[in-house]
Every structure is written in structure tokens, then in C-alpha cells.
Amino acid sequence: MLYRYALWRVSDETVAEDLVQDTFLSALRALSDYQGESAIRTWLVSILKRKIIDHYRHKSRINAHEPDHDFHETADFFAEGAMKGRWRPDAAPRDWRKNPEAEIETEGFMQVLHACMKKLSDGLAAVFTLRELEQMETESICKELDITASNLWVRLHRARLQLRKCLERNWLARENT
Asked: Model-level pTM?
């Protein structure tokens, strides 16, 4: 269970294994502090969450000066005139014709989403994971990753756009064939 939890959040099998191993080592070291106020599983997940946050904080600092790939969000929008800020016809989101909440429950969709998350840069993966999967508040994420709120929102926007494109290419195309 801990491995699946970690794998979904870091999208790397080796890193997930290391995080779970570190979680168990930390738990063994702190076993005398465990007071039984929560289930052991809950306690281990809370340790693992901290390890995941530390992992992303470390990666974020290492890659702080690297650009987020060759992604240019402005290419998807009109840059000037009456249509400024609106989607270009060739870049607009496709109609899924499906219920996103129902789709997220399918194993095939989750596999494609997981593969798409692996393609995100470390900085984008960190903010997306902490915000959307860990449900952390803006202030906490900014503090953990040492970034500004505006930088967080830019990264989240870029991550969501990249994930949308990847899902359209790898999920919708597959479903519509």
C-alpha cells in the first residue's frame, strides 16, 4: 500500500521504493515515540507524506534554475487583438464527451495519467503532486519549495496544460479509435 501511494505521487519505481524504505527506517527509529493514537498504517502514511515532500523540495532546489522543458504556453493562445488570451482553434481543449469523474476510476485512464505525469519536469511534477494529490495549501507548498505564490500558480498552470495535451494525445486518441 505504501509503495503504491508513493509510486502514484513520484511516478518513478526506484524513487518510490527508496521512499518506502526510508519511511520504514524512520518508523523504526521513531518507534519508541509512537503512542498508538492512530493506526500504524496512518502513522506510516504520514511519515511517507513527509518523505515525499522532502523528495520534491530537494528536487526543486536542485533544478531551480532549469527551464520547464520547451513549453511555451503562449503558443496556445492568441497574443493580441480582440482574441487575445483565447484558445487558438488548433490548440483548444478537445471535447471529452465523457464524464471526467467516471474516467478517473478506470485503470486504463490512470495508467495513461501516470505516464503523462512522468513526462512533467521535476518542478511541475512537484507542485502538481503537492497541490492536487496531497491537497496541500498554497502557503505550505510555497514554504516547502521556497517559491512565491505567483510562481506556484504559473507552474500549476503549465503542469495542467501539459497533462491535458498528453491525455488528449494518449487517452482520447486511444478511446476514439
From this structure: 0.61
